[in-house]
Design the sequence.
């Protein structure tokens, strides 16, 4: 009897636990398609993938760039080539062009003495610490401006060639307009970040490449900008070039870098192989190393692919005769008025065609240099250039009797 009572107690306890379990199952798990009430979810943090995309967006290797062939201005590749962007110290390249053109016109000399003003001595940023009243040759200051990117040297040079900083800025903008640099407006001679209430310098990759096309014609400027270091003030200061691509990429010859926080890292670089010269402009890179890698990649990509093909030489005889109906000489072969070369993909060299457009006959006297016709150069049926065909010499008109006899087929 006692055993049966114990079994009954056990069974009562088991029933209680079964009821508890059933209650829990119906209140916690879904039933008949309904979900039990849940706590309000906390806001989720951005997924790792979204953060990665945002990081990649912030770390674009540039805001804009262009790759240009120097002699023709042909653009080989680019992105946002007309984006107006602060050039920073690259601004000094326009000042350098003004100097080089004045040197070419014999208006100034590299041995000229430039005396620093108080304004020049007060410049900040990159500098060679020139003092008011201190004197240097123009060449010394040009090296300081282009190798060390010295703002004090740039200010002193600007005052020397134009009389004042403001007048020099006007000359810089006039030159930009003359070169059809439509995205460009200079407000300084050095490219420093603007002070409160001032505006920044603005330009674009394509405009800077256009500027560089004119600068590379001056061998001395390339010599200065390709120097990795230069002594200053009787070798008491060694100036180090900010362009770290020099020496690292053998084909790169120079020009200029520029940086301040807002605009990022900029560069105008040039590289040469034989007669082919490239200009690469990169603006708005997040780091100097990133900027330099872009330049190196573009140079290594295009220099092996292209070749500057000489299509015709200046003065080259065009092998097609023209009949002179009234001149003392009966026939003439014209010559090319100018030389013409063009950057062509090596695999496309055979696609270059020359069309000679000349009349069969020309009347009257012939003057030296007189246009007789033209050569049209095509690549894959696209016109890439035209060269005038001119007379290499003057040929006077024949006398009346000689011309009368020619009407009957008689030549004297």
Sequence:
């Amino acid at each position: 009897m006692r055993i049966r009572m114990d079994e009954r107690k056990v069974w009562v306890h088991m029933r209680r636990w079964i009821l508890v379990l059933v209650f829990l199952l119906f209140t916690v798990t879904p039933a008949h398609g309904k979900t039990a009430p849940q706590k309000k979810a906390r806001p989720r943090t951005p997924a790792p993938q979204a953060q990665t995309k945002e990081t990649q967006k912030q770390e674009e290797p540039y805001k804009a760039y262009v790759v240009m062939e120097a002699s023709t201005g042909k653009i080989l590749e680019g992105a946002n080539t007309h984006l107006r962007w602060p050039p920073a110290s690259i601004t000094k390249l326009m000042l350098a062009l003004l100097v080089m053109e004045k040197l070419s016109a014999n208006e100034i000399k590299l041995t000229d003495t430039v005396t620093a003003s108080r304004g020049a001595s007060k410049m900040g940023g990159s500098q060679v610490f020139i003092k008011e009243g201190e004197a240097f040759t123009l060449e010394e200051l040009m090296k300081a401006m282009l190798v060390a990117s010295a703002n004090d040297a740039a200010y002193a040079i600007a005052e020397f060639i134009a009389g004042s900083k403001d007048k020099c800025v006007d000359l810089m903008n006039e030159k930009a307009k003359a070169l059809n640099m439509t995205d460009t407006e200079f407000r300084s001679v050095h490219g420093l970040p603007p002070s409160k209430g001032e505006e920044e310098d603005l330009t674009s990759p394509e405009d800077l490449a256009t500027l560089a096309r004119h600068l590379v014609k001056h061998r001395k400027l390339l010599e200065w900008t390709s120097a990795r270091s230069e002594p200053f003030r009787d070798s008491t200061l060694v100036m180090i070039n900010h362009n770290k691509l020099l020496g690292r990429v053998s084909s790169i010859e120079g020009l200029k870098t520029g940086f301040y926080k807002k605009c990022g890292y900029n560069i105008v670089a040039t590289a040469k192989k034989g007669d082919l010269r490239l200009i690469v402009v990169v603006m708005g890179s997040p780091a100097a190393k990133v900027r330099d890698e872009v330049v190196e990649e573009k140079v290594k990509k295009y220099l092996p692919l292209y070749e500057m093909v000489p299509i015709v030489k200046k003065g080259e005889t065009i092998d097609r005769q023209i009949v002179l109906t009234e001149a003392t000489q009966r026939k003439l072969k014209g010559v090319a008025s100018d030389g013409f070369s063009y950057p062509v993909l090596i695999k496309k060299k055979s696609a270059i065609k020359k069309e000679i457009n000349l009349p069969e006959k020309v009347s009257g006297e012939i003057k030296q240099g007189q246009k007789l016709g033209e050569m049209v150069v095509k690549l894959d049926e696209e016109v890439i250039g035209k060269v005038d065909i001119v007379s290499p010499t003057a040929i006077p008109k024949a006398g009346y009797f000689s011309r009368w006899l020619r009407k009957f087929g008689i030549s004297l």
Q: What stands out?
A: The first strand starts at residue 64 and ends at 69.
